[in-house]
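Q: Could you fold this chain for me?
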Amino acid sequence: MKSKLKFNFTAYSTLFIFVFLLMPRLAQGDNLLPGLRIWGNMELEAQYYLSDSLIGAPEVDEQILMNGFANINFSYRGFSMGMRFESYQNALLGYDPRYRGNGIPYRYASYTRDNLEVTAGNFYEQFGSGLVFRTYEERDLGVDNAMDGMRLVYRPADGVTLRGVIGQQRLYFDTGPGIVRGFDARIRLNSVISALDDSNNRWTLGGSVVSKYQRDQNPLYHLPENVAAFAGRLNFGRGPVNLSAEYAHKVNDPSADNNFIYKDGHALHLNASYSRRGIGFLMSAKRIDNMGFRSDRNATGNDLQINYLPPTTRQHLYSLSGMYPYATQPTGEMGLMSELNFSIPRGTALGGQYGTSVTINFSHANSILKEALHDTIPVGQSGTDGYTSDFFKLGDDKYFQDFNVELSRRFSRTFRALLSYAYIFYNQNVVEGYVDRDDVKAHIVIADMTYRLPDRRSLRWELQHLSTRQDNQNWAMAMVEYTIAPNWFFAVSDQYNYGNNDSDLRIHYYSLSAGFSKGANRFSISYGKQREGIICVGGVCRQVPASNGFTLMVTSSF
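A: Sure. Below is the predicted structure, expressed as C-alpha cells.
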C-alpha cells in the first residue's frame, strides 16, 4: 500500500507541480491570461512542550511538534485546479500519530461545460443533511475524510441538480480499503412545475443512495461486501417559516461500531424554524438507530466515516460552558433542541437605550429503547440481529441535557456586556467511554464585557464559574484581553480548579498570549498550560491531552 501511494503521488502530482510553477508567470500582465485567478492560504502551528507531571503533561521526545499546510488554487474560465501540501513534524499532541511527515494528500482538477461539472482527484461533498453521505475537513479535530476519485454534477434543467461520486476516502496519508459510490438528486419544485411559479410556498425534494464495497475477510462471520444506504428529504418554506425532514435507511452493516450485529440502521432528522425581525425560533429533533457508516468496517474513532449525524445540542464558545461537550451516539440516540432568540426593544426599562438580545436554548439527548431478541440472547450480541427497538420509545439512560440563557446588551457607545447561565447534565460513561463515573450536573455562569477606548483600542474581560459536585468539581476562569486595532492583541487568562477534592490538583491553568496582524498575515505566540479534556465540533469529538509549553501560530492568505 505504501509503495502504491508513492507511485500515485508521483503520477498525480508532477503535472500539478509543473502547472503551479508556470501559473505565476502566466498571471503576469493582464493581457497574457485575462480572467486567471490564483488564491490560497497557509497555516503553521508549532508547540514547544514542557513536561508537567502535576497536570499529566507527558515528556515529548522531539520537544517541538508542528502541524502545517499550504493551499494553492487557480481557476481560468471553466477550469480550476488546486492542491494542499501538509507537513507534520511530528503531529501535535492529541492528533493521531499517523499524521507524520510531508505529502500532498489533497489535489484536484475540475472543469464545467454545458451545465456539467467534472472533478477528478480529491473533493468534499454532502448529500442533504449528511445522514448517508458527507465528506469534510475539520482541522481542529484532525478529521479529513475527503474522497479520492471522480465527481459529476449535472444541472439538466433549472431547479434540478444531479450529483454522482465514486472513490475511496482519505485515511491520513493513505486511503481506506472500501470503495464509496453515491448518487443524489435535488429538485426545486417551484422551478420545474409551472403551477408553482407564483406560489408563496417553496418546495424542495431530494433523494440519495450511497453504497460501499469492502471485501469480506472476517474469519468468524459472513459479512456483506456491498452495503447500501438510502435517504429522502423534503423542505418547505413560506415567508419566515421553514420546515424540513430527512429519513435514512441503511441495510445491515456489521462493524466495529455496532459489535458486528446484522441489524438495519435508521435515522430521522426534523427541523422547524421561524425568523423575522426581532424574533427567531428553531426546533430540531432526531432519532438515530445503528447508523454508524464507514468505508472500513473495522475502523474506529473518527476514521473513514461516510455519513454525518447532525447534533441537536448547542455549540458552546466559552471554555467552561464547553468543558462538557456532547458527541452524537451512532448506536442509538433520540435528541431534541429548541432555541428562542428575541430582542427587547430599545427605550424600554429592560431594553435600555440600545436594546437587549436574549437567547434561550434547551437540548436533550437520550438512549433509545433496545429489547432483546430472545431471553437467551443479550442485547447487541455479535453475529445476531442485535435487538429490536420501538421507534417512539425512549430508553432508560439520559445522555445529555443543556439549558442556557444568554443576555447581550450595549449599555453605552463604549461598553457592552454578555451574561450567560447554563445548566448541563453530562453522562461521562456514555460520552467518554467510562464505566464507573458519576453523571455530571454543572451550573455555569459567564460574564463577557468589552470597553472601547480611544484610538481604536479596546479592553475585554471574561469571568466564568463552573459549579458541580462531580468530576473535578468547581472551576473559576478569568481572562483580560487588550486590543490595538487593527494590528495587536495581548491576553492573559487563568483557569483554576479550586474545588478539586485532591488539594494537590487544585491547579492554575494560566496562559499568556500576544498576536500581530497586518494585511492577510497573522502571527501569535502563547505560553501556558492546557487541561486534559475533549473538544467537539458539530457532535464530533477528539481527546485533548494535558500540555504545557509555548505555541507559535502563523497564518496567511492571498
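A (continued): The chain is about 5% helix and 55% strand.
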